[in-house]
Write a structure and sequence with these properties.
single chain, about 60 residues, alpha+beta, 3-stranded antiparallel β-sheet, 2 helices, 3 strands
Amino acid sequence: MNEQDKKWLEICKNDKESRYVIMVDNDDIYVWDFETDEEAYTFTEYGYHFALVLLRYIGCEAEYV
């Protein structure tokens, strides 16, 4: 997870106006901006790899099986 990914997770987490939502597709995870009605950011990882790096980012011990 790069710094931009972390930045956008924090933006979405702290978004009190519900401007942004994280959209999860089978081959893409991105941030949708309801104000501009377009994609604002695409995360560098998706699928089970995104789950792994997200769990590690929040401080969990996580490994592939």
